[in-house]
Each structure stands twice: as structure tokens, then as C-alpha cells.
């Protein structure tokens, strides 16, 4: 985890608290750094505040899967497919479907 980048992202978020990318980037930074609990908190915040942010669903699903929260990961992928299709993002929907099919 790059602490300097994390501090910058949090500063940017203070200046623009409605930017979903900043919340996503912070979640990703914690995720890459192995800070699973903090990553999960930030992904949950992103889902709550910006449920239309498509990229969340794949990465949050992967984290949930790594944490052994399989049922929740499956639900995340299923919801993500719906959100991606609504947004017209077929590529993301396909990636989410592939992740979901890995449970078959």
C-alpha cells in the first residue's frame, strides 16, 4: 500500500466528496495493500453512496471471495451484472459473469 498515494486520495476526496472514483481508488489502495477490513469498508461505502459505479462490483466480489464470504460475493457479482447492463457496459457485465460462473 502506498501511504503517500492514500493520503493524497483522501485529500482529494475531502475536496470533492461526491466523486465515486476517489472512494473506489481508496478501496483499491487498501485492497492492494492487504488491508482487507478497510478495503471492505470503503467498498461498502461506495456501494451505498454510488451504487451505479460498475467497477466496484467485480473488485468487491473478489475481495469477498478471498475473505470466504462466498454467498455475498455471488450476490455482488449478480447485482453488478444488472448494474453493468443498465449502464450499457457489456464488457464489465461479461467479466462479472465469468467471475460468477467460477462458482459452478
SSE map:
Layout: H1 3-15, H2 20-32, H3 36-49, H4 55-66, H5 70-87, H6 90-101
Mean pLDDT: 96
Structural class comes to mainly alpha
The helicity comes to: over 70%
Distance between the terminal alpha carbons, to the nearest Å? 33 Å
CA-based gyration radius: 14 Å
Total of DSSP H or I helical runs spanning 4+ residues? 6
Oligomer: single chain
Give the low-confidence spans: none
- Overall geometry comes to globular
Largest sheet: none
The topology string of helices and strands comes to HHHHHH
Number of distinct beta strands: 0
User: What proportion of the residues form beta strands (DSSP E)?
Assistant: under 5%
Short structural description:
With 104 residues, the chain is mostly helical.
Q: What can you see in these coordinates?
A:
This protein has 104 residues and is mainly α. The protein has helices at 3-15, 20-32, 36-49, 55-66, 70-87, 90-101. The protein is globular and about 40 Å long. The model has no long low-confidence stretch (mean pLDDT 96).
Attribute tags:
104 residues, mainly alpha
